[in-house]
Write a structure and sequence with these properties.
It comes from Labilibaculum manganireducens. Keywords: Glycosidase, Hydrolase, Signal. The chain is α+β, with helices and mostly antiparallel strands. The protein is 26% helix and 24% strand.
Length: 800
C-alpha cells in the first residue's frame, strides 16, 4: 500500500511525493499535494477554518440526526419489517464527510476526530455483506428494498439505484482516510466492494452489463488503481466508459445517448456529466488513449463557448438538473448546482494537468471564487443547492437538505483547495492561484521553500519569496489571468465592453523582467538562490461585461466584475428595487474596502437610475447610487432581491409596478411550498415557456383537486381573474389543469362559486382570463383539477 505515497497524486493531489510520475502513465503535470501547502491567507484561511470548525462537524451531526448511520446499523441486522426510506445514495453523505474530515486532519491533526471516524467505520464495516457488497438501501431489507433499488443487484443501476455511485464516493473517502491516518480500515471496506463490482459487472458470462446511472466510479476506480497498482480497477473504469451508449438505457440525461467518444456537446444532468468527463481525463492519462482527450476537448469547447455562466456555474435548468440548449442561460431559474461547480473545477483541473494551458485555470478560478463558494455560507453552516444569478427573495441557504449531496460535497472540497495553487513538471514550477501560503515543493526532486503573500482577490499584488535548499535552476511559471489580458473566458461567450487595457508587471529582486507568454504563463528561467524575491502586479479595476448576442436572457444588460470576482446588486445595500435599476452605458465606478462587512469585501459603487410607474401609470425616473457586493456573499442578510446582470438599455428595464390587490394579498394553498410567493410577485412571463420567471406548483400531486387563495385585509370588490399557467412538458411534471374555477368567501365565511360571464378556458401558453359578476369579499379562491398523471403550476394570478 506504500504505492499511495508515490503514485496517487498523478490524479489525486494527495500523496506527499506524488510529483513522481506513475510508471504506467499519468498526467504530464503533477499537482503539489495540499499537505505541502499551508494557507495563511485571510480570504481562504477564513473559509478553511469555517470548514474545519463548522461545516464538517455539522455534516457529521446531520448524518447522525437524519438516520444515515442508522441505515448501516439496520443493514448489519436486516429484517423484512424495516421500512427503507430516504434516498438510495444517502450512504455517500457519510463517505464524503469522512473524506473532507480526512483532508482536514492531514493539515490539522485531531485525535478526537480520528477516533470518531473509526467508530463510524465500525458501523459501516458491519453493514458489508460477506462478498463485499455494501448498499444499505437493499441490505437492510432484501425482500423489500428501496423503491429505486430493483429486485436484485445492479438491476436498476442505470436508472436510480446508485450502487456504483455509492462505490465511487466510498473509494474516494477511503483513499483520503488512508492517506490521513495510514490505517486501512476504510480502504479494506472500499476494496472489498470494488472487488465485488469488478466480479459482478462486465460483459463476461455470468456478469451484468451495466454502466453507472450517476457517474463518479470512473474517477474513483482510476484513483484506486493508482493507489494499489491493481490493473483490474483501471480496466473496470475504462469498461464503464467504453460501454456507455451501448447498454439498455440510452439517454442524454445520463450522457448515455451515444458512446462517449462520439460526444461533442455537454448535455443532461450537469453533475453526472462533469464527473464523467473528469473520469475520461483520468482514464486517458493512465492509458494514453488520446481519443478520450479529443472527446473531452470538444465537450469543453462547447461548455466554455455556449453553456457556462459568468459565475463559472454550469447547468441551466432544474428540469433534470441539466445543461440547457446552446446559449440557454436564464438567470432567476438558473440551476448551477453547487456539486456541478465542484465538478467543473475537477474537469478544468484535469485538463490543465493534461495540456498545461492557463485557460483551464481561468475557468477554474472563475468557478472557485464565484459559483462554487456561493454554495456555502461564510460561516460554513448554510448551503445552496442551486446558485441562481437573480432572485426576488425566494432563495436562501439551508442548514441541510433531504438530498444532501451539496453540503457533503462542500465538506470534501474546501479542505482540498490548497492543492490547486501549485503544480510541477520536471524543472517547471507553476503558480496557478494566488493566496498567501507557505509551501515546500519538490522541483526536479529538490526541495524549494516558497512563500506567497497577497491580498488577492481584492488587490492584484503578489509577492513570492523563493528559497531553494541549494541554488537551483528551474522555471517559475506564473499564470497571467485571462481577465488581465482582456479575456473574460476562453471563448466569445462573454466580452468586456469598456475598452480598458489592463497591464501587468513582474520583478525579480526589484528588477523588472520580461517574458513572452506561452500558454498563458510568464516564465522566469534562472538559477534561484535563497532570498530571491518575485513581485507580481496585476491591474485590477471594475469591468463591464456583456454576453454573446445569442444569450437571450442577458441582452441589454451588463455584469460587473473586478479581478476574478463577479459582483451583484442586493437589497440590503440599496433602498430600492435592484431589479428596476438601470446603469449608464458608460458607468464610472468607485471601490470601497469594507473590512467589517461579510468578513471583509470590496464594495463597488456607481450611479444608476430607477424607473417606476406612478398611480397614473406614467414612468418616473429617480437618480440613485448602486452598491454592489461579491456574488459569493449574497443571501447572508435575509431574503430579498439580487441580480448579477443589470439593465443598461431601456428595452430591458423593469419599472417598478404599483401595488395591486393580488400583490398585497396573503396567499394560502392546499400545497404549501416556498415558491408560493411567485403567484403575486407581479412578474409576468413573456410566454408560457419563459421558465426564468418564478412559478408555484402542486407537484408531486396528480389527479387531485387543489386550490390556492388570496386573503384581503378588508372587504374588496373583485370582478375578474387572469391566470398564467406553468406547463413544463414534455420533460417536467406540470401540465395545464383539466379545469379551474373561481370562488369567493361570503359573509358566512363559506366558499361560493362566482357567477362567471364567460366560460372557463385553459390553453397551453395562453393566459386564462375570466370575468364574473362583481363580488364584495375578504377572500378569493382558485380551484383546479389536476391532470390524471401530472401536477399543475402557476406563474402569476391576477385579480381585477
Amino acid at each position: 500500500m506504500k504505492r499511495v505515497l508515490t503514485l496517487a497524486l498523478c490524479i489525486l493531489c494527495f500523496a506527499a511525493n506524488a510529483q513522481e510520475k506513475n510508471k504506467t502513465g499519468g498526467y504530464p503535470i503533477s499537482p503539489v499535494p495540499f499537505t505541502s501547502v499551508k494557507v495563511t491567507d485571510s480570504f481562504w484561511g477564513q473559509r478553511l477554518k469555517a470548514s474545519r470548525e463548522v461545516t464538517i462537524p455539522l455534516a457529521f451531526s446531520k448524518c447522525e440526526e437524519t438516520g444515515r448511520y442508522e441505515n448501516f446499523i439496520k443493514a448489519a441486522h436486516p429484517s423484512d419489517t424495516i421500512k427503507v426510506e430516504g434516498f438510495s445514495f444517502d450512504d455517500t453523505d457519510v463517505y464524503k464527510t469522512i473524506e473532507g474530515a480526512s483532508y482536514s486532519m492531514q493539515t490539522f491533526p485531531d485525535k478526537k476526530l480520528d477516533k470518531y471516524i473509526d467508530s463510524v467505520l465500525t458501523i459501516v464495516a458491519a453493514a458489508q455483506e460477506a462478498d463485499g457488497y455494501l448498499y444499505t438501501s437493499r441490505t437492510m431489507n432484501p425482500a423489500h428494498p428501496h423503491e429505486w433499488a430493483g429486485t436484485k443487484r445492479w438491476e436498476k443501476e442505470e436508472d436510480l439505484s446508485h450502487e456504483l455511485y455509492n462505490l465511487g464516493h466510498m473509494v474516494e473517502g477511503a483513499l483520503a482516510h488512508y492517506q490521513a491516518t495510514g490505517k486501512t480500515n476504510f480502504l479494506d471496506i472500499a476494496k472489498k466492494y470494488a472487488d465485488c463490482a469488478v466480479r459482478e459487472v462486465g460483459d463476461k458470462p455470468g456478469q451484468v452489463t451495466v454502466v453507472p446511472g450517476h457517474q463518479i466510479a470512473e474517477m474513483a476506480l482510476s484513483k484506486l488503481y493508482v493507489a494499489t497498482g491493481e490493473q483490474k480497477y483501471l480496466d473496470f473504469a475504462k469498461f464503464l466508459l467504453d460501454k456507455r451508449g451501448y447498454t439498455t438505457i440510452k439517454s442524454e440525461y445520463s450522457q448515455s445517448h451515444k458512446p462517449v467518444l462520439e460526444q461533442d456537446e455537454a448535455v443532461g444532468h450537469a453533475v453526472r456529466a462533469a464527473y464523467m468527463y473528469t473520469g475520461m481525463a483520468d482514464v486517458a492519462a493512465l492509458t494514453g488513449d488520446t481519443t478520450y482527450v479529443n472527446a473531452i476537448d470538444r465537450i469543453w469547447e462547447n461548455i466554455v463557448g455556449k453553456k457556462l455562466y459568468i459565475t463559472g456555474g454550469i447547468g441551466a435548468t432544474g428540469h433534470g438538473e441539466a445543461f440547457g440548449e446552446n446559449y440557454q442561460l436564464p438567470n432567476m431559474s438558473a440551476y448551477c448546482e453547487t456539486c456541478a461547480a465542484i465538478g467543473n473545477v475537477y474537469l478544468n483541473y484535469r485538463l490543465f494537468l493534461l495540456h498545461g494551458e492557463s485557460k483551464y485555470y481561468d475557468v477554474l478560478e472563475r468557478t472557485l471564487y464565484n459559483g462554487l463558494i456561493s454554495g456555502v455560507s461564510l460561516e460554513g453552516d448554510g448551503f445552496f443547492y442551486p446558485n441562481p444569478l437573480e432572485s426576488i427573495g425566494q432563495h436562501q441557504r439551508r442548514p441541510w437538505f433531504g438530498c444532501a449531496c451539496c453540503p457533503s460535497n462542500i465538506c470534501r472540497f474546501i479542505p482540498s483547495v490548497p492543492g490547486y495553487i501549485y503544480a510541477v513538471h520536471k524543472s517547471d514550477l507553476y503558480v496557478n492561484l494566488f493566496m498567501s501560503n507557505n509551501s515546500e515543493i519538490k522541483v526536479d526532486g529538490k526541495p524549494v521553500v516558497l512563500k506567497q503573500t497577497t491580498n488577492y482577490p481584492w488587490v492584484g499584488d503578489i509577492n513570492l519569496d523563493v528559497n531553494p535548499k541549494k541554488k537551483q535552476n528551474f522555471n517559475l511559471k506564473i499564470r497571467i489571468p485571462g481577465w488581465v489580458l482582456g479575456q473574460v473566458v476562453p471563448s466569445d461567450l462573454y466580452t468586456f465592453t469598456d475598452n480598458k487595457k489592463l497591464s501587468y508587471s513582474v520583478k525579480v529582486n526589484g528588477q523588472s523582467v520580461t517574458s513572452q507568454l506561452k500558454n498563458g504563463y510568464f516564465t522566469i528561467c534562472r538559477t534561484w538562490r535563497k532570498g530571491d524575491k518575485v513581485e507580481v502586479h496585476f491591474d485590477m479595476e471594475p469591468r463591464t461585461v456583456k454576453a454573446h448576442p445569442l444569450v437571450e436572457a442577458d441582452q441589454g444588460r451588463v455584469a460587473i466584475e473586478c479581478g476574478p470576482v463577479v459582483y451583484c446588486a442586493e437589497w440590503p445595500d440599496n433602498d430600492y428595487s435592484v431589479l428596476s435599476a438601470v446603469i449608464p452605458q458608460k458607468p464610472v465606478f468607485t471601490v470601497e474596502n469594507k473590512q467589517d462587512l461579510l468578513y471583509g469585501i470590496n464594495m463597488i459603487h456607481t450611479d444608476a437610475q430607477v424607473l417606476n410607474y406612478n398611480k397614473q401609470g406614467k414612468i418616473e425616473v429617480k437618480d440613485v447610487q448602486l452598491n454592489m457586493i461579491p456574488y459569493y456573499a449574497w443571501a447572508h442578510r435575509g431574503s430579498g432581491e439580487m441580480t448579477v446582470w443589470l439593465s443598461n438599455d431601456l428595452s430591458t428595464s423593469r419599472p417598478m409596478q404599483q401595488p395591486t390587490l393580488a400583490s398585497e394579498s396573503k396567499v394560502n394553498a392546499s400545497h404549501l411550498v416556498k415558491a408560493i410567493s411567485a403567484v403575486n410577485d407581479q412578474l409576468i412571463p413573456k410566454n408560457g415557456k419563459a421558465q426564468a420567471v418564478p412559478y408555484y406548483h402542486w407537484w408531486p400531486k396528480e389527479g387531485t383537486t387543489e386550490w390556492i387563495s388570496y386573503e384581503f385585509d378588508g372587504e374588496e370588490t373583485v370582478s375578474g381573474s387572469t391566470v398564467y399557467w406553468y406547463d413544463d412538458a414534455p420533460w417536467g411534471g406540470c401540465r395545464i389543469p383539466k379545469e379551474w374555477k373561481i370562488y369567493y368567501k361570503n359573509k358566512d365565511s363559506e366558499w361560493m362559486p362566482v357567477e362567471n360571464n364567460e366560460p372557463y378556458t385553459v390553453t397551453k401558453d395562453v393566459p386564462s382570463k375570466v370575468s364574473f359578476k362583481a363580488v364584495k369579499t375578504t377572500a378569493i379562491k382558485l380551484e383546479v383539477k389536476l391532470p390524471e398523471k401530472n401536477a399543475s403550476g402557476i406563474f402569476e394570478w391576477e385579480l381585477e
